[in-house]
Amino acid sequence: MSERGPIYIVDQITPSPGQGEAYLKGYMERYAGPAKERGMTLEHSWVAPPMWLKDQSNTLFFVWSVPAPEAVWHMNIGARANPSVMEWWNDAEKITESRQRYIMSDPSKFEAIGKADTRLF
Amino acid sequence: MYKLTKVINFRDGTSADQQQALIGKLRAASQSGAQVKCFLLEPVSTDGMTVNGGHYIWHLQFDDRKSMQEWYRGVEGELSNPVVGQVESAGYEGGPDGKSRGEIRHPDLSRGVYRTLLLRIDDKATPEQVAAFEADMRAMPVYIDAIANWQFTPVTNSSGTRKWTHVWEQDYADIQGLMGPYVMHPHHWAQVDRWYQPDSPDQIVDGFLCHTYCDFTAGSVLKRSAA
């Protein structure tokens, strides 16, 4: 693992009421599989509360990691090159109330990450 | 100050001689135009890292939009030359005015890399999203020291593959500044890129953009626009 990593990518998703289980199934089948091919490792998938709600919304959390900042670029370039990524998000939009993505790291890595003197290509 | 930036692609199958003859005409039109305050006409880097970057960057500066239009009427025929393929074009107000539009942070930079990005914001973006995007873009130089000079500007006159909405211009001391500290800075890939990336719920920038750059050896056009 690079001293500049890992970098974590966290998806926080609130599916439409009663759609939590369906969203999770779609995410794992249509997004998570190809994402692994783009160098992303799924560290955690969490659901709150720990049961499927019927007329209310669950909140889903997916914690991904990549080994270093340049892997974030490769992740993004790979997403642009694969139309199935946008197809998934467009389809998922129909059963989504809200979605956030955060890119983060342990603060102890800030200094190494901030040097940013490595060429990407 | 009004700026015009064109990213010129040569048509496939045209010869180097034909291409250089065209460039010679464009250079002459730039040099002889009384309305042209300064210009840059340079070949795009061939390192393969541009995106829809074209073959030449043609950047010109005028006192105002009217002067640009007067000059352009006399030269637009050159861009109908069969050597010319796709041309991406953006006209916009010029000159840094402090941190709201741009800054000259290294006025002595006489040679380096000039980079420009033409982008389009999706029509569905809300004014609040656009304002937040613009604020993120303008904050980049606060964190990224390698950006020597910069201007970030809404486009007022556009043509090409997209109706361009913004131009993001920067100078770097060298290509390392662009490909290292700029591209690899966390403010870039963990804060600003959310507006660009298809995985991000915040994406409002069209996936087709022009990211292009060239060397300059006779002074910065960004600096000259500040004079």
- Average pLDDT confidence of chain A is 93
Radius of gyration of chain B: 17 Å
Q: Report the helical percentage of chain A.
A: 25-40%
Beta strands of chain A, count: 4
Number of domains of chain A: 1
Order of helices and strands of chain B, N to C?
EHEEHEEEHEEEHHEH
In angstroms, what separates the terminal alpha carbons of chain B? Answer: 10 Å
Strand order of the largest sheet of chain B: 2-3-1-4-8
Give the number of DSSP strands of chain B: 10
Q: What percent of the residues of chain B sit in helical stretches (DSSP H or I)? A: 25-40%
Question: Low-confidence parts of chain A lasting 5 or more residues at pLDDT below 50?
Answer: none
Q: Helix and strand string of chain A, N-terminal first?
A: EHEEHHEH
User: For the report, how would you describe the main beta sheet of chain A?
Assistant: 4 strands, antiparallel
Q: What is the general shape of chain A? A: globular
Beta content of chain A: 25-35%
**Largest beta-sheet details of chain B:** 5 strands, antiparallel
Instruction: Quickly name the level 1 CATH class of chain B.
Output: Alpha Beta
| CATH-level-2 architecture of chain B | 2-Layer Sandwich
Rg of chain A over CA atoms, rounded to whole Å, is: 16 Å
Question: Would you kindly provide a brief summary of this structure?
Answer:
The complex is a heterodimer of chains A (121) and B (227). With 121 residues, chain A is an alpha+beta fold.
Description:
The complex is a heterodimer of chains A (121) and B (227). Helices cover 39% and strands 28% of the residues of chain A. By secondary structure, chain A is an alpha+beta fold. Chain A has one domain: Alpha-Beta Plaits. In chain A, helix 1 (20-37) runs antiparallel to helix 3 (83-92). The longest helix of chain A is centred in the N-terminal third of the chain and has 18 residues, at 20-37. The radius of gyration of chain A is 16 Å and the shape is globular. Chain A starts with 6 loop residues before the first strand and ends in a 6-residue tail after the last helix. Chain B is α+β, with helices and mostly antiparallel strands and 227 residues long. Chain B has one domain (2-224): Alpha-Beta Plaits (2-Layer Sandwich). In chain B, the strands form 2 sheets. In chain B, strands 2-3-1-4-8 form a 5-stranded antiparallel beta sheet. In chain B, strands 5-7-9-6-10 form a 5-stranded antiparallel beta sheet. In chain B, helix 3 packs antiparallel against helix 5 (186-192). Chain B is globular. The A-B interface holds A 7, 69-70, 72-73, 75-76, 79-80, 85-86, 89, 99-101, 103-104, 113-114, 116-121 and B 49, 176, 179-181, 183-186, 189-190, 193-194, 197-202, 207.
